[in-house]
Write a structure and sequence with these properties.
Layout: H1 3-20, H2 33-49, E1 56-59, H3 66-76, E2 81-85, H4 92-100, E3 107-111, H5 118-130, E4 132-139, E5 142-149, E6 154-159, H6 167-170, E7 175-178, H7 184-197, H8 204-212, H9 218-234, H10 242-251, H11 261-273, H12 281-288, H13 292-305, E8 309-312, E9 315-318, H14 320-326
Parallel strand pairs: 1-6, 1-7, 2-3, 3-6
Antiparallel strand pairs: 4-5, 8-9
Bound molecules: adenosine-5'-diphosphate and magnesium ion (MG).
Adenosine-5'-diphosphate is lined by residues 18, 21-23, 29-32, 62-68, 190, 218-219, 222.
Length: 335
C-alpha cells in the first residue's frame, strides 16, 4: 500500500474514533459554561413555543467543539441534521436543492461557512430571513424567477474566521457564540471521559500531564490520549501511567506548553530573523515555509492566548515569556 493510501486509511480511522468520542447531549458537553447556559435558554424557549431555534453562528479555532456542538443542538432540538461544507457548494442550484429538501425542524449545518462562494451565500439571505427561496433560472435566452416557500429550519454555521463573514450574512444569525479554549481542568475532564469511552483507564497524573500539553483543545487532547495509549498498549499494558504518558509525549516532541515543531519554528524565526518583531505575518510565513491561513487559524490563536506573541498594528511581536520559554537571548537590534 502506498504511503498516501496508508495515511488516508489512518485518517479515516482516526475520524471514526473522533466521531465515537463526540458528546451527544449538552450535559455531556464539557466546559463552555456561559455558551451552554445561553443555549439552554434559547433551545428551551423555542421548544416551549413549538418553534424552530433561531439561526446559530459558532466561531472559534479548530478542534474546540463547533461540529460537536452542532450535532448536540440537533439532538437537543430533536431535529434531523444535514451537514454541508462551505467550499464544496459551488453553484446556487446546489444549495437551493438542499434547502428545498429540508423538512420542518431540520438543522442545516454549514461548516466553514466563510468559504461559501458569495453568489451561493446570497441564496441564504431570504431563506434565513423568512424561509423563502427565489432563484433565477435561465430559460430560452431569457430567465425566470422561481419563488419557493421552505420548511422552517435552523441554520447552524461554523467558522474559524468570523471576520471573513459578510455583514449581511452575519446579521441574519440570531444567536452568535464564540467557543473559547478550555482550561486545564476541563481538558482533564474530557480526557477522563475519553478514557471511559475507550475503556482504557488512565492515572490522574498522566491525565494532568496530557491536559497541560493539549493547547486547551479537545481534539488535541483526544489525539494525544490515543497516542499515549499506543505507547501503553505496545508495552502490553491496558492502563496508562505517568511514565507511559511522559515517554509518549517526549517521543511525540510535544513540549511542556504543548508547542510543536511549527510553533517553535514560528517563534524562533521571529526572534532570530526579525529581532523579535514587529513583523508582518506574510514575512514569517514565507521564512518558515508555512501557509499564512494555517498560521493565522491554527497556530496563532493559542500562542496569543498563552501570551507568547502579541498582535500590534505593525505586526507580530514575541513576548518575554516566549524568549524565556525558548531560552533565547534578545538579538541586538541593528537599527
Ligand atoms: N465540549 C466538549 N466536551 C467533550 N469533548 C469535546 C468537546 N468539544 C470537542 N470535543 C471533542 O473534540 C473533538 C473535536 O471537536 P470538533 O467538534 O470536531 O471541533 P471543531 O468542529 O471546532 O473543529 C470531538 O471529536 C470531540 O470528541
Ligand atoms: Mg468541525
Amino acid at each position: 500500500m502506498s504511503e498516501r493510501l496508508l495515511d488516508a486509511k489512518k485518517n479515516a480511522l482516526e475520524e471514526e474514533v473522533e466521531i465515537s468520542l463526540r458528546p451527544q447531549y449538552l450535559n455531556e458537553y464539557i466546559g463552555q459554561e456561559s455558551l451552554k447556559s445561553n443555549l439552554r435558554v434559547f433551545m428551551g424557549a423555542a421548544l416551549h413555543r413549538g418553534e424552530t431555534l433561531d439561526h446559530v453562528l459558532i466561531y472559534g479555532p479548530p478542534g474546540l467543539g463547533k461540529t460537536t456542538l452542532a450535532y448536540v443542538i440537533a439532538n437537543e432540538m430533536k431535529g434531523k441534521i444535514r451537514v454541508i461544507n462551505g467550499p464544496s457548494i459551488e453553484r446556487t442550484g446546489d444549495l437551493a436543492a438542499i434547502l428545498a429538501d429540508l423538512e420542518p425542524g431540520d438543522i442545516l449545518f454549514i461548516d466553514e461557512i466563510h468559504r461559501l462562494p458569495r453568489v451561493v451565500e446570497e441564496v441564504l439571505y431570504s431563506a434565513m430571513e423568512d424561509f423563502q427561496l427565489s432563484i433565477l433560472l435561465p430559460r430560452d435566452g431569457s430567465s425566470k424567477t422561481i419563488n419557493l416557500t421552505l420548511a422552517p429550519f435552523t441554520l447552524i454555521g461554523a467558522t474559524t474566521r468570523a471576520g471573513d463573514l459578510s455583514a449581511p450574512l452575519r446579521s441574519r444569525f440570531g444567536i452568535v457564540e464564540k467557543i473559547n479554549f478550555y482550561n486545564e481542568k476541563e481538558i482533564a475532564g474530557i480526557i477522563t471521559r475519553t478514557s471511559g469511552v475507550l475503556k482504557t483507564p488512565i492515572s490522574e497524573k498522566a491525565t494532568s500531564l496530557i491536559a497541560k500539553r493539549s493547547r486547551g483543545t479537545p481534539r488535541i487532547a483526544n489525539r494525544l490520549f490515543r497516542r499515549v495509549r499506543d505507547f501503553a498498549n505496545y508495552a502490553r499494558k491496558n492502563d496508562i501511567s505517568q511514565e507511559d504518558a511522559l515517554k509518549a509525549l517526549d517521543a511525540l516532541k510535544v513540549d511542556c506548553l504543548g508547542l510543536d515543531d511549527v510553533d517553535i519554528r514560528y517563534l524562533t524565526a521571529i526572534i532570530e530573523r526579525f529581532h523579535g518583531g514587529p513583523v508582518g505575518l506574510e514575512a514569517v510565513a514565507s521564512a518558515i515555509g508555512e501557509e499564512i491561513m494555517n498560521l493565522e487559524d491554527v497556530y496563532e490563536p493559542y500562542l496569543l492566548q498563552i501570551g507568547l506573541i502579541n498582535r500590534t498594528p505593525r505586526g507580530r511581536v514575541v513576548s518575554e515569556k516566549a524568549y524565556a520559554h525558548l531560552k533565547k537571548n534578545h538579538q541586538k537590534k541593528l537599527f
